[in-house]
Design goal:
Elements (H helix, E strand, L loop, with lengths): L4 H9 L1 H8 L7 E2 H7 L6 H10 L11 E6 L2 E3 L5 H14 L9 E2 H4 L5
Parallel strand pairs: 1-2
Antiparallel strand pairs: 2-3, 3-4
The chain binds a DNA duplex through helix 3, helix 4, strand 2 and helix 5.
Length: about 120
DNA sequence: CAGGTGACTCTTT
DNA sequence: GAAAGAGCCACCT
């Protein structure tokens, strides 16, 4: 059967993005722009967002480690859905990621810089 | 091929 | 700091 046919289709389209997300260490975060760049698609931050949005949970992807860039090396949960956003924040806090009072994440501390 | 959409990002008001 | 505009890429119809 092919109940995962759709998931396979998506994994095929955004495989490059998912491969990078898998390498994000626990307690670290990455911006969509950085994800796109590391995935070999510089400037495709929007596509990276689409990849996270369609990411099948069956892949066990740490999508919560991908956030949006706010300003001055600060990240911020960019999920439109308030429920999903709260879940992402909770997941990140569980990994040791701290949020500022303004709801931002200091990328200089929790941002992942691949060698 | 053209138009619409989006978990983006930057600049300007 | 919020809101609006513009630029960007990838996917779908």
């Amino acid at each position: 059967m092919s109940e995962d046919s759709e998931a396979e289709h998506i994994a095929k389209l955004y495989g490059d993005f998912y491969d990078v997300v898998r390498r994000i260490p626990k307690g670290r975060v990455l911006t969509y722009g950085q994800l796109a760049e590391l995935a070999g698609r510089p400037g495709a931050a929007r596509a990276a967002g689409a990849a996270m949005r369609c990411a099948p949970e069956t892949l066990g992807l740490p999508w919560q480690r991908v956030i949006g860039k706010k300003s001055k090396g600060q990240g911020r949960v960019s999920i439109h859905d308030p429920i999903g956003g709260a879940i992402q924040r909770q997941l990140l806090e569980s990994e040791g990621v701290e949020f500022t009072e303004a709801g931002g994440v200091p990328l200089g501390v929790f941002g992942w810089l691949p060698e």
